[in-house]
């Protein structure tokens, strides 16, 4: 099982209203949030860990039940048969039989990817995995607190994507999206769950690599944020995703920051979405 670290009770500044933020996403206002002690995983769940879960439980993911999932077009061969895409994001292709064990389609496998984050998992799948291990998904506030690791800047290491030494600290898109990825950070797709330097609390890859499911419903209203241990709206249609992914690029999606947020339906899956545990 993935290592979990304890986070002591604390109050931190959640949200962002700077030049990189997306007001329409509900990142702001910046507000003080108080959390009790909790534990959070130092890495996202890997393919090998998820494989053990499936072997023990026989779990069938939503993508497997539906028979397809969304795959980034750049991972498909040039002669791949035309498939339905997403109108607002044509680089996403609906690929039959794509799943956590066949991440790029039916003829692919997890060779070379066992230590990478599991993808093509829905909120429902992530919740089932967590419950099997006596854990849960982090709340949005817990996730953001752990990603910040005591920092109030745009990134855990400062206000610029690269570290002050010019080194890459996260797996995101470099070059011109979606046509060219220069792979300056060393990766075209996902990176291993322990790639890159951990943050000050010893937690890996909370920025970039894969979007991560949280337990909160998505909403724009934060009026309940001042209560201890906020958990978002009491109901909703989509769950909060945090952290950005290897496809984030500042030309269209600078959501590779602790405050950034997105949302997806509970049964949705894609090749850039995974999760980590909390307790």
Write the layout of secondary structure elements.
Layout: E1 4-7, E2 10-14, E3 31-35, E4 38-41, H1 47-57, H2 62-66, E5 68-72, E6 85-86, E7 89-96, H3 123-132, H4 140-148, E8 175-176, E9 180-181, E10 211-217, E11 239-242, E12 261-264, E13 273-274
Parallel strand pairs: 10-13
Antiparallel strand pairs: 1-4, 2-3, 5-7, 6-7, 8-9, 10-11, 11-12
Report on this structure.
- The chain starts with a strand and ends in a 5-residue tail after the last strand.
- It is an alpha+beta fold and 279 residues long.
- The strands form five sheets. Strands 12-11-10-13 form a four-stranded mixed β-sheet. Strands 5-7-6 form a three-stranded antiparallel β-sheet. Strands 1-4 form a two-stranded antiparallel sheet.
- The radius of gyration is 18 Å and the shape is globular.
- The mean pLDDT is 93.
- It has one domain (4-45, 119-274): paralog of FGE (formylglycine-generating enzyme) (Alpha-Beta Complex), CATH 3.90.1580.
- The chain contains four helices and 13 strands.
Defining traits:
alpha+beta, single chain, three-stranded antiparallel beta sheet, 279 residues, paralog of FGE (formylglycine-generating enzyme), globular, 13% helix, four-stranded mixed beta sheet
